[in-house]
Amino acid sequence: MGYIRVSTSGQVEDGHGLDIQEAAIRTWSKEQGHRVVDVFRDEGVSGSQEQRDGLEDALSAVRFNGAEGIVVASLDRLARSLTLQEASLQQVWGSSGDVFAVDTGEVMADDPDDPVRTFVRQILGAVSQLEAGMISRRLRRGREHKAAQGGYAYGAPPYGFVAESGQLVLDPDEQCVVLNMIDMRDAGSSLREIATHLNAYGVPAKRGGAWHPQTVARVLQATDGNQIVYQT
């Protein structure tokens, strides 16, 4: 059972980070004699965020559906919050499952006769959490500084908009795609069906990559949050 995650929308839409993680997991698993029966993904989701559908599905596959373990590219893809990392590991181990990281091998379960094992793992998890916090603080301060100068300060513009001279303006072509998404959703189409439809017709995501259900969900959530929609 593979699990992959990227935290930024850019990584999601160009597929680069996800593709590399999945390829690494499949190659390592084949070399080690494991069979990957499925790969769950969280796209554009922070490693410190507790609610992650892909991670929950992966953990449930071990607990209830007979999967023997989870493989991640590295332990920080599982979580960049120490408490979430430890809770996830305990769920897998509590279900007699194994956890493997491509870069370090098996993540060994706690052993009361070897407290150093737990100590080292948790120290590395705390370092990963600190690194994530430092990156978040640096980005937040950069956004605040840019906003103080009167410019758009929140990363890549959301789908349907472009940044011009430091301001968000509507992108008519992308707004038409947003309207199409809304129409399909209101007609009962699932997120996966909308993504499949857009990919089949060659409609590129924000950075030119393929659409995924969670990418569609973010666009629709922005619309529900009073995003201005272009209308002809």
Provide the descriptors you would attach to this structure in a database record:
alpha/beta; Rossmann fold; 2 domains; three-stranded mixed beta sheet; 7 strands; globular
Describe this structure in words.
This protein is an alpha/beta fold. The chain has 2 domains: 2-128, Rossmann fold, CATH 3.40.50.1390; 161-224. It is 53% helix and 12% strand. The chain is built from 9 helices and 7 strands. It has helices at 9-14, 16-32, 53-64, 75-78, 82-94, 115-148, 172-186, 191-200, 213-224, and strands at 2-6, 39-43, 69-72, 98-101, 105-106, 161-164, 167-170. The strands form 3 sheets. The protein has a 3-stranded mixed sheet with strand order 3-4-5, sandwiched between helices. Strands 1-2 form a two-stranded parallel ribbon. Helix 8 crosses helix 9 (213-224).
Helical fraction: 40-55%
What is the tally of beta strands? 7
Largest sheet: 3 strands, mixed
Query: What fraction of residues sit in β-strands?
Result: 5-15%
Kindly provide the radius of gyration, computed on alpha-carbon positions and rounded to a whole number of angstroms. 20 Å
Name of the level-1 CATH class of the largest domain: Alpha Beta
Tally the structural domains.
2
Distance from N terminus to C terminus (CA atoms, Å) equals: 46 Å
- Could you say which overall geometry the principal axes of the C-alpha atoms support? globular
The count of helical stretches stands at 9
Could you report the average pLDDT, rounded to the nearest whole number? 83
The helix-and-strand class reads: alpha/beta
The fold-level CATH name of the largest domain is Rossmann fold
CATH architecture of the largest domain: 3-Layer(aba) Sandwich
Output the CATH homologous superfamily of the largest domain.
Resolvase, N-terminal catalytic domain
Strand order of the largest sheet: 3-4-5
The H-and-E topology, N to C, reads as EHHEHEHHEEHEEHHH
